[in-house]
Amino acid sequence: MTMAGSAIGLGNIWRFPYMVGEHGGSMFVIVYLFCTLIFSLPVFISEIVIGRRSGKSSYLAMSSLTGGNKWWKLAGLFTVLIPCVITSYYSVVGGWSLHFLWLSLKGVFTMAEPDSVTGLFSEFVLSGWGPIALLFAFLAICGLVVSFGVKTGIEKFNKITIPILFVMIILIMVYSLSLPGSMEGVRYLVTPDFSSFNSKMLVFALGQSFYSLSLGLGAIITYGSYVSRKEDIVATSFGSAISDLIFALIAGFAIMPAVFAAGIAPGAGPGLIFQSIPFVFAKMGAASPVVAYIVAILFFLSIVVAALSSTISMYEVMVAYLIEHFKMKRIPASIMVFLIVGGLGILSAMPFGILDFLDALSSNVLLVLCALISVIFVGWTLKKEDVEDEITNGGKLKSIFFKPYYYLVKYLAPVFLIVILIYNFIS
Ligand code: TRP
């Protein structure tokens, strides 16, 4: 449940629709499904294997399984550095969400002309200081939570808001499917044009799939170290991947029909949900203002909490590293992360497309690199018997999945991921 909770988040609701819109609609969805089942799932299983076998968090997990090997320690360092990049732009989206929560509290969407609210996002992003100030406000909340070590408090909160988000997104889906012009959006999601397939689409679908399952930055390795020996790793991974997929698809069917009904370009970029969702609330508001007002607040509140909980868990990775390796105290370490990440975040808060760039760089390159490291570690460094021991819980589970899994992890996934990395490098 916790792993599924980490997986389900802004990646499904904010990032997935914008990726679908930028990279070719339903064909992207198909490629994404393929990547999740063939590549992300084995990587997910491998990260749990590394975590459970070592009993360590991501930075030291691989080196501890190889008797303190320093190269594997260096590889572990990646899992600390990548959150630095991701947190910087993720917090900008967190700041946007705060702004939209504020707008929904003021009732801006529910009392407006539907066509006028789609422009609120660009107005805000172009406003200059607003997004930067809210980036720091958002990071400050995370920093406070992490410095006082009340992380579990937020996670409890998350257990309430993720189900609320789920209910809200289903509600929005039903409503947005009823809007005039929305069927165009459904068609966009379900009628694949196979000739539109291209390598860029594959790269982005793979990146989205890793991102959405929280792979490649040590989260699943760390969680894996807490998984009990009795647990079936393959079943756990399937459960997480499937629930994450379903959530993403529902979000797609909530957002895309609204995008078409509102006449927004599907490839509008990272602001897609902030342009389309207010339109839905404005339409809803014309029919039943009170319901729309409440749904809008609950929706953006859940988005803010989902963004907070993801950011906090990445923030904690960086703070824990500073405390362990530089013997810093918790509060100075939190302040240092605040300054570094905030400074880097300013670039993404400005309307120059740097956010899109860092988002693509981290998902398509950095996460793929880390995933490659995990599969090479499991396929080529761990002994086959040890991997089988983990997958079958010492022979207690008869896993028909072991053979195909091992083949994927040892040969197919490394080759594929290397090709993707080289492609990224060239292009
Ligand atoms: N998977 C999360 C989402 O879909 C984002 C994420 C990536 C994440 N890596 C993480 C969340 C690590 C928590 C921890 O939004």
Q: What are the distinct ligands in this entry?
A: tryptophan
The value of Rg in angstroms is: 21 Å
Largest sheet: none
Shape: globular
What string, H for helix and E for strand, traces the elements in order? Answer: HHHHHHHHHHHHHHHHHHH
Uncertain residue segments: none
Content-based structural category: mainly alpha
The total count of helices amounts to 19
Query: Whole-Å distance between the termini?
Result: 38 Å
In which range does the helix fraction lie? over 70%
The number of strands is: 0
Overall mean pLDDT stands at 92
Q: Give the amount of beta strand, in percent.
A: under 5%
Polypeptide structure, described:
By secondary structure, this protein is mostly helical. It is built from 19 helices and no strands. The chain has helices at residues 2-7, 10-22, 26-54, 58-65, 70-105, 114-117, 120-125, 129-147, 151-177, 183-190, 199-212, 219-224, 233-261, 272-287, 289-326, 330-349, 354-381, 384-391, 402-426. It is globular.
